[in-house]
Amino acid sequence: MDSSPERIANPWGVRTPYAPGTPWPVRTDMHLAEGTGEDDVERWVRSASILHSNGDALDIAVRDGRIVGVRGRPADRVNRGRLGPKDLYGWQANHSPDRLTRPLVRENGRLVESDWDTAMDRITSRTKTLVDERGPGAVGFYTTGQLFLEEYYTLAVLAHAGIRTNHLDGNTRLCTATAAAALKETFGSDGQPGSYEDIDHADTIALFGHNMAETQTVLWMRILDRLEGADPPRLLCVDPRETPVARRAEVHLAPRPGTNVALLNALLHEIIRTGRIDRDYIDAHTVGFDELVSRVAACTPEWAAEICDVPAAQIERAAELLGGARRLLSTVLQGVYQSHQASSAAVQVNNLHLIRGMLGSPGRGLLQMNGQPTAENTRECGADGDLPGFRNWQNDRHVAELAEIWNVEPDAIPHYGPPTHAMQIFRYAEQGSLGMLWITGTNPAVSLPELARIRSILAQERLFVVVQDLFLTETAQLADVVLPAATWGEKTGTFTNTDRTVHLSEKAVEPPGEARPDLDIFMDFAARMDFRDKDGGPLIAWRDPQGAFAAWQRCSAGRPCDYTGISYDKLRHGSGIQWPCTEDAPDGTARLYTDGISYAHPDMCESYGKDMVTGATVTPVEYRSLNPDGKAVIKAAEYLPPHEDSSPEYPLQLITGRTVYHFHTRTKTGRAPELNAAAPDVWAEISPAEAAVQGLADGDLVQVTTPRGALRARLRTTAIRDGVVFVPFHYGYWDTPRGHRPPDGLPGRAANETTITDWDPVSKQPLFKTAAARMTLVARRGTGTEGTEGTGTAGGTA
Questions:
Q1: Of the candidates 162, 116, 113, the residue with the CA atom closest to the CA atom of residue 141
Q2: Beta-strand (E) ranges in 405-462?
Q3: How far apart are CA 508 and CA 492, in angstroms?
Q4: Helix (H) or strand (E) holding 127
Q5: Cβ(501)–Cβ(576) under 8 Å?
Q6: With contact defined as beta carbons under 8 Å apart, do 241 and 258 qualify?
Q7: At residue 797, does pLDDT exceed 50?
Q8: DSSP classification of residue 26
């Protein structure tokens, strides 16, 4: 058992080496409140992690009606008992004294405490007025990646078929939209092909823009244990920073930000040139290979070296690694998803696996990773705007199926065009066509690009803003109504991790004060709005989480994400279960596409695809012509230069990212003492060479400026590529005197003061890694902060 307090300094704990093809050994991690021993725990309640996407199974320790700690679950397939720092310490945020406990409403410009009836009456009254006067398109929803499946599905039903709006998306648009888009482009449907167990078998692991050591710490523990065992896998890391992953990699490629497509095209070029392809697999299971060959024919390592500023010899070494793998696992995350040509780059990783036939068997896996704990559920349930059950909005039969399940007319479900993505929802709010925005469990006043713009949108008097959250976040402070929500450990529901593993999280304690589960809030709203089906019955007939889960099972039946074989009772025993889980696969499904490509047929697919440059939707006729038999689509992509690049005025490239100790905008992790102490404030990283050019040193207070805005931070020199500055995006203003905005007339500390309002044409995911920037000295270390409110010397090892 590992319960060491050193898990801040060593986030990955002690090693348990193992050989390929053998089970990952158990290691049980635990952390209990000071003064609490295992014998003091009255109950252990089943749950899983909520502060990252890995889905670590854990049990919640309860004593005297309070959460007093957590313990990893050794029987679970995901983590075999291990927990990361955010798991071990993050639960303490539940007890924070500044939790919201009563609804707030805005009176005379100020938020004041109120009661539920008053708050909900204001919301329903405004909703009805807007729908009656301006139509359903005047109402929008922006949700999170941290609710439960049952809550997302309920939200999707009330938005799609109750209000009938197309304006519904999640902040998963910021972290995982490209994962979904890339899977749909290649396989016709969302759903991760691979499994975490592929780590146990792979001889080569490639991580593209994925700092797994900090974003999915337990998954990295699994790789570390393979590296310390017999016959370890070889690692390829693509990242402009020298991360912990890069330090363990056999080959580390550090390309210029925004050039991922050029690099990947060169890797594909080399693999094709050297004949390291599986022609039988390509012929049997794919379309589009000849176009790929033509596209990458001129993309030599030398060509890519000029664009990416990576030595051609290193690109050749990486291609040898990938081409020589017998069992290749690839993972992809924000270094691809939040960068220029995001979907095009992610699809090229898919292509790499298709041309090598590396799918569907142990060790041959592909994980287009998620960033949040329930991002997969957002996509499955339709809370990201897509139709629930991975149904295709362009397929009339799919719409009719959904209408039958909900007992509404097909025309009641908006499918006149693609779902409205988050960036467009905020643009509609800015332009005034959107009159109400309901924000659940997310903090766009810190997490979206170009924050000055976002604050101005949320502060408009004509926009009615509802915020449902745990704390008075930067966004909640701008709302007209604030609803206090229950959180993990205070409610029951299921959630699904990156490799399709479903866990049950059970209620352990009561929420504080009058806080309510999100499911209860959505059901209350639906009842007050009196949403009805076509026979006059209630549109939302369920009254509890199990009822919502049963409704979702019916919706998922026969679709790629089939949950019909999963039950709360099954989830209360043994391990998490991977969907699809059906009568034919009662124990779940480890890997997709074990016998060809299952979901890409024109009658089955979730999407017909998009143009990789413009994002224009492919028509059903075009898709049927291209792919009549439903094979995987190999989509080639041309490298295009970034929209914003460095210049004499802005000589650096700014990229933002995550640290091992924090999650999103620190609303939870910033309230966990150990995590906050490890990384209390923002910092900026540049290389020693860049620092020397400007005469800067570690600890100096610097200003990072882009055409949108500026931030101030303490400088760290690290092994990052020259010409790049890195800033973690977690830091906002809730723990500063101003609360929701930068100091008057001074730069802020939020990275998104500086990022650009731009997005990938296919996935519509914002670009957080392509801004042009400059860095200037504000004050030498130890000479004061010169008015930079809340900006101190950052700690931690990230």
A1: 162
A2: 436-440
A3: 9
A4: helix 116-134
A5: yes
A6: no
A7: no
A8: P
Q: Across 354-434, where does the E strand assignment appear?
A: 365-368
> Minimal CA–CA distance to 699: which of 715, 719, 683?
715
pLDDT of residue 344: 98
Cα 427 to Cα 453, 466, 527, 584, 759, distances in angstroms? 10, 17, 30, 46, 13
Q: Which residues contact 191 (CB under 8 A, 6 or more apart)?
A: 183, 390, 500, 560, 561, 592, 599
Distances in Å between the Cα of 239 and the Cα atoms of 52, 249, 263, 726 are 20, 11, 12, 12
Give yes or no for residue 288 having a pLDDT over 60.
yes
In the block, tokens 């024919």 appear at: 297
Encoded amino acid at 57, one letter: A
Whether the pLDDT of residue 116 is over 90: the answer is yes
What tens digit of pLDDT does each residue of 671-721 get? 999 999 999 999 999 999 999 999 999 999 999 999 999 999 999 999 999
Cβ distance 712 to 702 under 8 Å? yes
Q: Are strands 110-113 and 104-107 parallel, antiparallel or unpaired?
A: antiparallel
Query: What SS3 state is found at 270?
Result: helix
Residue written as token pair 């659940």: 440
Comparing CA positions, the residue from 487, 452, 352 lying closest to residue 60 is 487
Pair of tokens at residue 559: 């679709």
Distance separating alpha carbons of residues 774 and 649, to the nearest angstrom: 7
Residues in the chain: 798
- Report the SS3 class of residue 514: coil
Is residue 68 predicted with pLDDT exceeding 90?
Answer: yes
- Residue for token digits 């043994």? 574
Q: Are 454 and 156 in contact (CB under 8 A)?
A: no
- The model's pTM is 0.96
Supply angle C-alpha 516, 519, 522, rounded to 5. Answer: 95
**What gap in Å lies between CA 203 and CA 741, rounded to an integer?**
49
Distance CA 221, CA 435 (A): 47
Contacts of 35 (CB under 8 A, 6+ apart): none
Identify the H or E element spanning 707.
none
Cβ-contact 246, 220 below 8 angstroms: no
Asked whether 135 and 163 are in contact (CB, 8 A), the reply is no
In three-state secondary structure terms, 91 is: helix
> What are the beta bridge partners of residue 438?
141, 466
Could you tell me the sign of the dihedral formed by the alpha carbons of 282, 286, 290, 294, in that order?
negative
Cα separation, 612 vs 644, whole angstroms? 19
Q: Is the pLDDT of residue 791 over 90?
A: no
Q: Which residue has the tokens 């006729």?
A: 621
Interval 715-762: pLDDT, tens:
999 999 999 999 999 999 999 988 888 988 889 999 999 999 999 999
Nearest to 357 by CA among 262, 289, 441, 260: 289
- The gap from C-alpha 128 to its chain's centroid, in whole angstroms, comes to 33
**SS3 for 720-786, per residue?**
ECCCEEEEECCCCCCCCCCCCCCCCCCCECCHHHCCCCCECCCCCCECCCCEEEEEEEEECCCCCCC
What burial class does residue 530 get, using C-beta atoms within 10 Å of its C-beta: 0-12 exposed, 13-18 middle, 19+ buried? Answer: exposed
Q: At what angle do helices 312-324 and 342-356 cross, to 10 degrees?
A: 50
Q: Report residue 60 as tokens.
A: 């919640």
Beta bridge partners of 105: 112, 481
Task: Report yes or no: 255 and 308 within 8 Å, Cβ to Cβ.
Answer: yes
Separation of alpha carbons 377 and 50, rounded Å? 13
Interior/surface letters 700-720, b for 16+ CB within 10 angstroms, e for the rest:
bbbbbbbebbbbbbbbbbbeb
Q: Quick check: 91 and 68 in contact, CB under 8 A?
A: no
Tens digit of pLDDT for each residue in 531-568?
A: 999 999 999 999 999 999 999 999 999 999 999 999 99
CA distances from 277 to 270, 283, 356, 357, 595 (A): 11, 11, 5, 7, 18
Q: How far apart are the first and last CA of the chain?
A: 25
Distance in angstroms (rounded) separating the CA atoms of residues 347 and 207: 14
User: What are residue 578's DSSP bridge partners?
Assistant: 501
